[in-house]
Amino acid sequence: MKIINLRLHYPHCQQDKLVEVSEEVFDVLCQSIREMRNYERRKQYHRAFYSLDAYDWTENYALEHSPSPEQLVMLAEERAERDRLAAALREALAAALREALVYATLTQARRLCAYYLGGLTQQQIADRECVHNSNVCLAIRRGLCNLRRYYADHPQEK
Questions:
Q1: Kindly report the CA angle at 106 between 92 and 131, in degrees rounded to 5?
Q2: What is the pLDDT of residue 36?
Q3: Is the pLDDT of residue 39 over 90?
Q4: pLDDT at position 136, please?
Q5: Residue 129's closest CA among 150, 103, 108?
Q6: Considering only Cβ atoms within 10 Å of each terminal Cβ, which end of the chain, N or C, has fewer?
Q7: What pLDDT does 154 receive?
Q8: Stretch (H or E) spanning 145
């Protein structure tokens, strides 16, 4: 049996009150003290001196314990499913875009793909193709007009 001081665990107690408790209760109290100290350290580390309810993710981020193995497996499965769906969506969009790019010239199609799918800037495309930036801008603008014409002529079914 262990002896604890209730004044240390309950702030409303004004005087020392010694109580004898079992080993299990003592272990639970020690664990709760450790968790509270860890929580305070996380708040200080993340400079969370405001309410941790300020944003949806803040409290969970500061309080989150390490995930269990089951949770890790579930997260991995969800991530794999999300990646599979994203790949299927990219394939479908690429197929639809290839079909629509028939209305654009080869130069317009190449520059549209580099700009929107490749993530290059117009200046990077111009440098790569050794042309002026205004030529790239004009080709992209005209290519978009051609794509608009294609989608106006071929309404998409839902």
A1: 120
A2: 85
A3: no
A4: 95
A5: 108
A6: C
A7: 78
A8: helix 133-153
Share the mean pLDDT of the chain.
83
Q: How far apart are CA 52 and CA 63, in angstroms?
A: 9
State mean pLDDT over 6-17. Answer: 83
Digit-coded pLDDT (tens) for 118-135: 889 999 999 999 999 999
For residue 149, what are the contacts with CB-CB under 8 A and spacing of at least 6? 103
Structure token digits, residue 124 = 């990077």
Give the distance between the most distant pair of CA atoms in the chain: 87
Token pair belonging to 75:
């997260």
Question: Which amino acid, residue 66?
Answer: S
Q: H or E stretch including 26?
A: helix 23-45
CA distances in angstroms from 137 to 9, 13, 69, 112, 124, listed in the order given: 70, 75, 51, 10, 12
CA dist., res. 129 & res. 113, Å (int): 14
